[in-house]
Amino acid sequence: MKPTEEALELATVRMSVDIEGLHSRAGRRGAVDLPEMAGRILQMFSAETFALDLQFNYERKKGEDSLIGKVRIEGGAGAYK
């Protein structure tokens, strides 16, 4: 591992994300970039129409990751399997 890569891997990183009121638009094609966690939840339920609130805090300290947060999905509709 290069010294720069090692320094970045061990650096303390803190990030907070807060998304409120993200609404899908039924019948319209398009795309939106979401945090991977939210995308996995929507994919798990095959939700096509929804309102999403997402809040989480991420921290990496001394190479250890910590993720704490919450996701709220309202009015989800689609092909639930």
How would you explain this protein's 3D organization?
The protein is an alpha+beta fold and 81 residues long. The protein has one domain. The chain is built from 2 helices and 3 strands, in the order H-E-H-E-E. A 3-stranded antiparallel sheet has the order 1-2-3. The chain is elongated and about 45 Å long.
List the helices and strands and how they pair.
Elements: H1 3-10, E1 13-23, H2 36-44, E2 47-61, E3 64-78
Antiparallel strand pairs: 1-2, 2-3
Keywords:
81 residues; alpha+beta; three-stranded antiparallel sheet
| Average pLDDT score | 75
Give the termini separation. 44 Å
Strand order of the largest sheet: 1-2-3
Q: Assign an overall shape.
A: elongated
Low-pLDDT windows of residues: none
Q: Based on helices, strands and strand pairing, what is the structural class?
A: alpha+beta
Q: Roughly what percent helix?
A: 10-25%
Major β-sheet profile: 3 strands, antiparallel
- How many domain units? 1
Q: What is the CA-atom radius of gyration, in angstroms?
A: 17 Å
User: Helix tally?
Assistant: 2
Strand share of the residues? over 45%
SSE order, one letter for each helix or strand: HEHEE
Number of strands: 3
